[in-house]
Amino acid sequence: MRKKIAIASGKGGTGKTSVSVNLAAQLSDTLNPDSQHVALVDLDVEEPNSLLFFKDAERFYHDDESRPVPVWDEKACTLCNKCSQVCEFNAIAFLGTKVLVFPDLCHSCHACSVLCPEDALPMQEKRMGELSYYKPTQSNLSLSEYRLDIGQPSAVPLISSAIKRINQIPGDNQIFLLDAPPGTSCPMMEIVKSSDFVLLVTEPTPFGLHDLQLAVETVEKIDRPMAVVLNKAGSGADHLIDNFCELEGIPIIARIPQSRKVAEAYSRGELVYKINDEFHEIYKSFSEDLVNMLKTLDLE
Amino acid sequence: MKEIVVISGKGGCGKTSVTAGLAYVGSPDIVIGDADVDAADMHLLMAPENTNAEDFYSGKLAVVEQKQCVLCRKCISHCYFDAIAINDGRLEINPLDCEGCGLCTHICPTNALRMETQKAGVLYVSTSRTGAPMVHAKLDIGADNSGKLVTKVRNTSRAIAEQKGKSIILTDGPPGIGCPVIAALSGASLVLIVTEPTTAGYHDMLRVHDLVKKMNVQMALVLNKAGLNADFEQKIHEFAKNHDIIDLGELPYDPIFSKSISEGLTIPEMDNEDLKQRFNSIWKDLMALSQ
Prior knowledge:
heterodimer; A: alpha/beta; Rossmann fold; Alpha-Beta Plaits; two-stranded antiparallel ribbon; 9 helices; 35% helix; elongated; B: alpha/beta; 2 domains
């Protein structure tokens, strides 16, 4: 089975990363006998935190991530001003005697470069972040992290680049867990678009419910199957989430109880799925149910 | 007029709970802005009324004039976002993939493509239940340009503050460090960072600090969820001390935070004297800093 699963949440801090790291580790334990490989990909590129939970992970590959932006070739330019007129993102300013490019505003669409009659705006790669591949020693999973440089405005080009790389990784027995950024705008959508299945992590408060509704609307718009993970269960008003999911016909695949002990373990960057039998059982049946759901996808 | 923007880097540190609590305490002097436009929650605590809604247009999408299209595929081969395809003999543009760059419209030999401005969200101007004017917004599902909507929220807040003679704008910012956060920070008078004593909270605070420093805005900090991890609490206070961040103290890790959200109340409205005083004192300190 080869599947990409987005782990998303409208609201930040519902436990998306906590669920991602624990589920990835447990899933890897569960599936290992079937020689099914699990890869956790941290695509919360503005604030990637998964690695903090695999402290002994060894980095075995590292590279810059870049994207193309135009560079002005003064000699070739005839100052016709076409470039600044076609740029929809105000990334090019025409100053009468010269052309200024603002790479932070550029969407790498190539319009200026393609439409310049003198080829005076060739595209050149510019760094936007970095990627690292890790091998945690205590688990069979692999971990990759994409990290946006501070000051870079848009997470989307880095996420698209990551997804292209993931799609090039060979093998039929690969499960990719994609830790998405919070929210429901472009960065989250970019990940959901390329996924086969979406897990939405929420918490039982009116904030959790409100942002879950937005996230569900987004996933429905892209038309992906989904399930809800109710984190911090028992800490507030579980019925809010239960009622909504029942109404929408979305399964609640796991309920992870609120626990101060778990919050403390999380604060130290420890995996909680093995801290006690209760949590181990929860993540075990969560993993099994997820695998079963993924298998039904293939039947449909 | 001063604008205080509350951010956290990591989501779920309690940014909105802290902002709403401060908005309750400081209500007479402020305009409330909710710039977390893609998951705005402030209205759930501030129950805004007398809402004036205005559609927000931003960004464009390519549209096909089927009659003019000769299916030459030139646009498909040029689109860097793989947004164009031919299905059942018709050219189709996937609005979720279209970046709105317009390159296809310029290279189409038969002028079969044009750009259309899109509705990207709604801007609301209301009065919160505490009486303070409130500016908030909702980004449409799948819409681009959250940074521009953030700017719109801030500009509108400023105009209303001027109009109503309010000296402070208190803005709930978005999580992360990308475009919406940058849009929320530029030109702010003071940034209040809400953080939590966890490895992730600390890590994200460092990244957000680097960003704010680049943008040259004065920083203050509130450590939320105190009691969870003494080591990180110490680390955060030390970091603040060594990096010119004004340390406004701690709020405890306490179930009262999720309880207050469920009741639709802010923390200082809950039955807890200690927390009331803490919010009062944080607000007093913020006012002194904004002078």
